[in-house]
Amino acid sequence: MTPKVLLLVNFSEEYGRGLLNGIAKYSRLFGPFNFCRIPIVSGNKKELKNAISWAKTWGANGIIAQIENDQVFEKLLSLNIPIIAQDTNERFIGIPNITGLYKETGQMAASYFIEKGFKNFGFYGFDNIVWSRERCEGFCEKAAEFNFNVHIYQHQKEETPPLWSYKESQLADWLKALPKPIAIMTCDDNQGQHVTEACKAIGINVPEQVSVLGVDNDLSICNLSDPPLSSISLNTEKAGFETAQLLSKMMTNKEGIYNDIHVEHLQIITRRSTDFLAVNDKEISKALHFIYYNYKERIAVDDVVNATALSRRVLEKRFQLVLKRSILDEINTLRIKQVKQLLIETDLSITEISDVCGYTDIKNLSRYFSRHEGVNPLEFRKLRQSK
């Protein structure tokens, strides 16, 4: 008989959609499962009552659930069928959780900012949610290894967040008071967009004064942010596959002891919100500012020099001393990052990408790209598509 699996999860965001893709993949390969999806939004009691009633009537064999609180947890347990919970607020005892290596994710973010030369750090998130709290702990622990302190703004997550004016909010007051330049990790992409919008409303430049990094790599949120939000991508599809695999075992052997599923962090996707280096040299800062805002145009080294008060020879020397690379290297590094993103995320031709990213022709693009990546642009695109 085909196992019946009830999905009590809100799949409206990237994290949930990734889990769903992984669950569906397992079902195709090793199932099939018969799925019924009932989104539970903010622990709505009526929805929950209907879901539990439906689970009994339908004869569900297992549940993957986004559990908001202990009351929901107890009601689902009363069904006496295998359950795997997404740790929406806290991890649950007695059943496997879909959770994460949250401290390690925070440490990854801090290392990223430290390598960029930042000495001021901030964290913005929630203190009543495990994934936010532990990301903050990891971020602070890594910063402390280098004798840096972290300015923390944590608040309570509410079921229905109030609308507020960024200009008059406590978040805005906190951002104004922070030392600059500062690197801020936010607990997720939603909070990252809150920070970039608050900065925009009160006249703080992102990323020159405040660099912002989120988590989840939810493209709809990251690209909606102005400037686009950098984010840590998570391997949610793999976690979804492992969740379905574990539930299959649980439905076969209800008496076993089963471990949590850990969603792994993959890499930091750099977009404009962190595409900046923290340097004390004002003239280099001017040069970097000019490069970051104009690298998609066909600028040359002399254009960068003209944006500063220094001669080309002196500016080149300072670049090598402070950044360990040349002005041209900096321009091409940013261009190559943009090329890679367009190769992965779009179907633009190499000619179109060359023009968008400021190269004079395809030969120039291919030469710099091959030197940087070890393969030409077409080979890079084919390799990424095959993964």
UniProtKB/TrEMBL annotation:
InterPro entries: Homeodomain-like_sf (IPR009057), HTH_AraC (IPR018060), HTH_AraC-typ_CS (IPR018062), LacI/GalR-like_sensor (IPR046335), Peripla_BP_I (IPR028082). GO terms for molecular function: DNA-binding transcription factor activity; transcription cis-regulatory region binding. PROSITE patterns: HTH_ARAC_FAMILY_1, HTH_ARAC_FAMILY_2. Keywords: DNA-binding, Transcription, Transcription regulation. It comes from the Bacteria. SMART domains: HTH_ARAC (SM00342). Residues 285-383 form the HTH araC/xylS-type domain. This is Xylose operon transcription regulator XylR. It comes from Flavobacterium pectinovorum.
